[in-house]
Design brief:
182 residues; Rossmann fold; alpha/beta; 10 strands; globular
């Protein structure tokens, strides 16, 4: 399946939900974000040393309150990324962080903790994904935002990805808003 197709499906699901209550809209929003996070893993390349060995799992970490409950776990439990089983870990605070390939920093994480996790993982091959305004300009590789029509979009900071030795597929870049450092 092409990148455009995968992300088109997620974008279609993220269209405004005027008939839904705010709670249903939030549930739908996080289902879309889960789909995006899973698909980001397919279009980012990690260096070989990002894994201890050939049997190491692909780890997706969540820092902060998990707004999507166990949806991410259900999505990944029977799937693999690059022939690796997927493990989901939750971290309440930056001090709890353990090595992972993707770290989703939820909107419940305050700015100081965001800075702390960016500094703690500096130079490590971890894709930090956030959902707070300007986070891609302040350390994240990918950040979600709401577009003017209330669809969910994402921005990519290519410089942050390079500093973390992550390579992004050009097909993913075509779907993103590219931002730089502040």
């Amino acid at each position: 399946m092409s990148a455009a197709c995968c992300f088109a499906i997620a974008a279609a699901v993220s269209s405004p939900a005027t008939a839904y209550s705010q709670d249903m809209g939030a549930v739908k929003e996080y289902k879309v974000k889960v789909a995006y996070i899973y698909n980001f893993a397919r279009y980012i390349k990690w260096p070989k040393d990002a894994f201890a060995d050939r049997e190491s799992p692909f780890v997706i970490g969540i820092l902060g309150d998990a707004p999507f409950g166990n949806t991410l776990q259900r999505v990944v439990e029977s799937r693999k990324i690059r022939d690796r089983r997927i493990v989901v870990r939750h971290f309440a605070a930056p001090r709890d962080y353990e090595s992972c390939q993707i770290l989703f920093v939820t909107g419940t994480v305050d700015v100081e903790a965001q800075k702390e996790i960016v500094n703690l993982t500096k130079g490590m091959p971890v894709l930090i994904v956030g959902e707070t305004a300007n986070f891609a300009s302040q350390g994240a590789g990918i950040n979600f935002y709401h577009d003017i029509d209330d669809t969910i979009g994402f921005e990519i900071n290519v410089d942050n990805l390079k500093r973390r030795h992550l390579m992004v597929d050009a097909r993913l870049l075509k779907l993103a808003r590219i931002v730089g450092d502040n």
